[in-house]
Write a structure and sequence with these properties.
154 residues, mainly alpha, Four Helix Bundle (Hemerythrin (Met), subunit A), 64% helix, 0% strand, flat
């Protein structure tokens, strides 16, 4: 994979194999070298597609809020609209935070640090990254972190 492909903010999953760096219907496995160029290209595209979906949702929310901002005569209807808008804004705030984590994961791909635990430096694992591509900790490190949080809360 070329540096240009990593730095691009456009997913290459619909481009020819040579350009995107991995074959059609490719899914990374533990049977190949960890964080090889195919895997990095795959996760890069996965993250970029996810990011685009979240951004599209944000634009849709902004459009809906502008469209449905009129004051209703009925107080119950107005309260319902405001409640639904509050829920949607909370959801969009979570999406905004997730976009930030996706951007951090893309930076780790560019820097060659993607797929490795930030606490121990050990591989996070393909399975965990497929389930949560923004993961920064291995399962063991995450368990230790959660155990600490529970002990402080209790």
């Amino acid at each position: 994979m070329t540096k240009l492909a990593i730095d691009s903010l456009e997913p290459l999953n619909d481009k020819p194999v040579k350009m995107r760096g991995y074959p059609d219907k490719y899914v990374p496995t533990d049977k190949e070298p960890y964080m090889n160029t195919k895997q990095l290209a795959y996760f890069r595209d996965l993250l970029l597609v996810w990011r685009k979906e979240l951004e599209a949702g944000n634009l849709s929310t902004m459009h809906d809020l502008k469209e449905h901002s009129a004051i209703e005569a009925d107080m119950t209807d107005q309260a319902t609209i405001e409640y639904e808008q509050t829920l949607e804004l909370r959801s969009r705030d979570r999406a905004r935070k997730l976009i930030s984590k996706i951007d951090e994961a893309l930076d780790r791909i560019r820097e060659g640090e993607f797929g490795y635990c930030q606490e121990t430096g050990d591989p996070i694992g393909i399975g965990r990254l497929l389930a949560r591509p923004i993961a920064t900790l291995s399962i063991e490190a995450k368990r230790r972190q959660e155990k600490k949080e529970i002990s402080y809360a209790g």
